Amino acid sequence: MNDKLKELAINGGTPARKSSNPPMFPGGMIIDEREEQAVLEVLRSKRLFRYYGPGNSTSKVEEFENAFSKETGVLYTLGLNSCTNALAVALIAAGINPGDEVIVPAYTFVASAAAIIAANAIPVIVEVDESLTIDPADIERNITSKTKAIMPVHMRGVSCNMDAVLNIAQKHGLKVIEDAAQANGGKYNGKPLGSMGDAGCFSFQFHKIITAGEGGAITTNDKRLLNRAKSLHDTGANWREDKSIENKDEYPIFPGFNFRMTELTGAILLVQLQKREALIKTMQAHAARIEQAISEHSKAQLRKKNSPDGDVSVCRMFFVESAAKAEEIAAALYAEGIPAETMGHGLPDWHIYSHWRHIISRHGNNDAGYPFTLSDKKYSADMCPRTISNLQRVIHIDVSPLLSHSDIDETVEGLHKVLDRLL
Q1: Cα angle vertex 128, ends 91, 287, to 5°?
Q2: Does the structure show a pLDDT above 90 at 56?
């Protein structure tokens, strides 16, 4: 090997990667004539609304819900227009009342906490462990008489320790609302994510594994929760003269929102769902090779996985000894053509609680400060030091399903090249 190939690219050597990574939009980047045909079918039917339309066409949203329930191993799915709204609706449908406390991890997209506030509840932010998912021990430490639910977030493709979460919830009589936005298709000990709590919530936003640009879903085995969610997401739709909500007389009419999924979204997602397994298998195969390369360096600590076989492998993350070392290695990998990132440095990252300034300052979505007026819960940017320490030492590498075998070969080469010299 000549000197240029041996030298780190950040120091003037030849980069290991010969081409740049494709955009990290797994489902979005494989949209083809099947999605086009599905959309055209809806447009030609002129039925754009899930509950009715001209002719005798069936609802694509309902077809998607049935297919998603089967894939997720649950009785019911409700399609919505976003995961944020799915989380808020699921919380209210599960019986969370204004001022109730809901435990949420310190590492998740801000939407998880925002949904709790939208449900007029109070987020209780707790530590994540080395899996970078919610720390069961810190859940226990933060339970009070006001705690009514836990929101475990299956973050960046990796499941939470659901056995521990469910045991805690059962012990204290708490609801569990799984946030599976970033792990669609993942599993925990063979059980599909989104099937273990009182409800599961999914995202189909453009960054997610399968996508329609926007969209969300609630999964559940609880018919009462489902019917309440149906009413909530459809302006309090007990008034509809159809069978969208069974046993309507059992449910009081109450105000709701308009968070309905459109037929165009449902049609796209029906096709995307058929592609999910292949996408995940490809990412898992790529990630396994990257993980093997990292594991050969004793000073690199791979992220803990609570259920290794259930990881959807949208990324690989590993810890190094310090924040400074993480920045040094990430910069060197980036120069090699491997788009590695660190966390907790530079621009605000809305996946880290310390950047949620409006929540830390107890700002509601109104001038009165509601729902924080119902609670004396206080927050600070340093309240979860273990989370901050872990994230600052982490290096993150996306794993696109569009990478070729030669791309992975070059990525492995670049990892060894950098880690051999800098660790």
Answers
A1: 100
A2: no
